[in-house]
Amino acid sequence: MTNNSILKLDTPALLLDLNLLEKNLDEISSIAKENNISWRPHIKTHKSLQIAKMQLERGACGITVAKLEEAEVMVAAGIVDILIAYPLSSEQKLERLRTLTNQAKITIAIDSLEQAKIVDEAFNGASPITVWIKVNSGLNRCGVEVNEVLDLATEITKLPNIHLTGIFTHAGHSYAATSLEQIKSIAKCEAQTVLDSAILCEQAGIPIKHRSIGSTPTFKYGATIDGITEIRPGNAAFYDMCQVGLGVATASNCALTVLASVASVKKDRIIFDTGSKALALDQGAHGNKSVVGFGSVIGHPEVTIERLSEEHGVATLSATSTLALTDKVQIIPNHACVVANLFDEYNVHRNSVIVDSWPVDARGKMR
Q1: DSSP H helical segments within the chain, as ranges?
Q2: Whole-number Å distance between alpha carbons of 170 and 182
Q3: pLDDT at 287
Q4: Is Isomerase found in the keyword set (predicted)?
Q5: Vertex 85 angle, CA 82 and 86, to 5°
Q6: Which H or E element spans position 79?
Q7: Smallest Cα–Cα separation from 217: which of 234, 198, 193, 194?
Q8: What would the pLDDT profile of 260-279 be if each residue is shown by its tens digit?
Q9: How far from the centroid of its chain's Cα atoms is residue 179's Cα?
């Protein structure tokens, strides 16, 4: 790193390269437009009003959130078309959700009849809430199986206070892929799971307007499959070393880094002031062995961050390093989404000059 305003920051600090962010967002927007489909980015990656607005300015039809609190933050700032891609069922959450639907167009995930009946009861006396059925395309987390979709959709149509308009899935198991060919295969299966589910419903007279897919590893491939109407990549705004390890991005695509200082130098190791509270503990999905260490130190391939304690990043050396006490480096995190949630603000830079500071508005919003 040359002398620039980044070096004046205290560490650890979260850095966001505006050039790369804009490039990544423009690419996603172009892919959606070229395939004549909608783009509904998942903001759990960045949790930022500023970035969400940049995505909407580039043509996003709305946003996706993981949690109700994230939706509340976004609605308060004027974002009014939101998918909550999480099955809500508790009394407290549904009461808040009912309030939120008076201010914005909210769609929620349904993955069981029991949940659907609870939501229906919660919206008795209110305007019906829009729902999408979540199907399981291989992640084996939430979601019904394809052979269960029609029964669930049929029962939902009997409930007066919920309105089914879509089917979606999340192929998170693509993070454990070991080749691009496997990612493409997962993308095809992801899309086919949604399309098969929609066909079953429509053959029974239940229209399915929205057919939504798109984990970051798979969205570029799934976007090209006929019948899909929407993609929802989140991590692709930033990318990270997990995506680099999968082969869907390079280090030069990664917009988010953590600025660290050398806190101590020993014969066989270097210690940075970025432990698990700055870099998180992710090392990629189980089965994917391409991610090495706990982040990549830019410009120093001889350095591997081998272990983390809360405040210390302990690195080993494969060759002599020029790094000395108080030197500063940028580290590309393994998983940008969890790292962004560890900081209060983005230090936004263009060409290594700090140009702004953006809050991580929905940081810690987990309910």
Answers
A1: 18-34, 49-57, 68-76, 91-100, 113-122, 146-156, 180-203, 219-222, 241-246, 276-279, 336-340
A2: 16
A3: 61
A4: yes
A5: 125
A6: none
A7: 234
A8: 999 999 999 999 999 999 99
A9: 21
The pLDDT of residue 286 = 65
Determine the pLDDT at residue 1: 40
Where do we find the tokens 């302990």? 314
HSE-CB for 160 with a 13 A CA cutoff: 4
Query: Which amino acid appears at position 151 of this protein?
Result: D
CATH class (in words) of the domain with range 20-237:
alpha beta
Report the C-alpha gap between 313 and 296 in whole angstroms.
12
- Whether the pTM exceeds 0.90: the reply is yes
Residue type, 352: S
Cα distance between residue 232 and residue 180, in whole Å = 19
Task: Delimit the domains of the chain by residue range.
Answer: 5-14+247-359, 20-237
- Contact present, 227 and 193 (Cβ < 8 Å): no
Q: Determine the CATH number of domain 5-14+247-359.
A: 2.40.37.20
Angle made by CA atoms 134, 139, 144, in degrees to the nearest 5: 30
Residue 191, token pair as written in the block:
């899309």
Q: How many CA atoms lie within 13 Å of 17's alpha carbon, on the beta-carbon side?
A: 22
Structure tokens at 228: 């899909």
- Residue labelled with tokens 């499959």: 225
Q: Which residues of 296-335 are buried (b: 16+ CB within 10 A; e: fewer)?
A: bbeebeebbbebbeeebbbbebeeebebeeebbbbbbbbb
DSSP letter string over 139-197? S-SS-B-HHHHHHHHHHHTT-TTEEEEEEE---GGGGG-SSHHHHHHHHHHHHHHHHHH
- H or E element that contains 362: none
Q: At what angle do helices 91-100 and 68-76 cross, to 10 degrees?
A: 20
pLDDT beneath 70, residues of the chain: 1-4, 286-288
